[in-house]
Design a protein that fits this description.
With 279 residues, the protein is an alpha+beta fold. 37% of the residues lie in helices and 23% in strands.
Amino acid sequence: MQNWMEGFQDSIDLMEEKLTEELDIRAIAGKAALSPFYYQRIFSALCNMTVGEYIRARRMTLAAQELARTDVKVIDVALKYGYDSPDSFAKAFQRFHGITPSQAKEPGASLRSMAPLHIKITLEGGSMLDYRIVERAPFTIVGVMRRFNSDTSYQEIPKFWNEYMTQGEKPSIMGTFGVCRDLDGKEFDYWIADLYKPWEEIPDGCETVQIPGSLWAQFLCRGPLPDSLQSVNTKIWSEWLPSLKGYELAGNYNLEIYGPPAEKPEDNVNYIWVPLKKI
C-alpha cells in the first residue's frame, strides 16, 4: 500500500511542479503507475474533485498570490497560468475568487486559497465491501453511446440516463449495463446497454461493442441509487485498491450492472465490475 500511496503523491507533486506548463494526464497518471482512465476516477474518489478542478484551483490560488504581493501585470499572470487572453483569465478568476484580478491587487482583498494536496489513507474499522473475483469470457453489449469528458462526466452521465429513459416512446434498451471505455485519458465513451442477442435486430441508434474476457472484481452495491453505487465506488478506490495484493488493474473498461428495481429502494441489488490481472 505504501508504494501505491507514494506513487499517487508523486503524481500530485508533478502537477505542482508543472502548474505553469501544459500538463499531460498520461504523464501524471504514469507517476502513479495507472492508466489515465483509472487515475482520474481514483483521484475524484479520493479528493472529491476532478484532476482538472484541482489544477484550475491551484493555478487560481497562485495567480491571486502573485497579483496581491507584486506589481505584475494581469496579462502576464494570465499567460503564465495558461490563459490565452485577459478576458478568459478574468472570468475564471472571478468564478473562483468572487472578485476581479484588478481588485485582487487592492489592499485587504479577500481571496480564496487551495493548498497542495497530500494523500494520506487511513484504514478504519467497520467499513465492509462485499466482492468476489471471477473470470468471465468475452461478451457483447448493445446500446446507446455518448462521449464524455472526465471533468464533467459525474454531472452529465446521470442526465444522459434521465434523457434516454424518459423519452416519449419506450426505450429499446432497458439499461442492464452502464459501460465506460477509455479513449485518451481525457474523454471516454459511455454506453447505456443490454446484453447483445445475435438473433435480434440491433435497434435504431444503437451499436455493439465486445467486452474482453478478463478477471473481474465484482462489488455488491445494495440500496438506493445512486447513493449505493457512489458509496461503494469511493470505497473501492480509497480502501480496497490501496490494500490489494496479488492483482493490479487491467483494461480500459468499467462496468455497472443494474438489477431489476426492488419494491423498496433499500433492497436494490446492483454491481460494479473492475477488470484485474494477476501479478
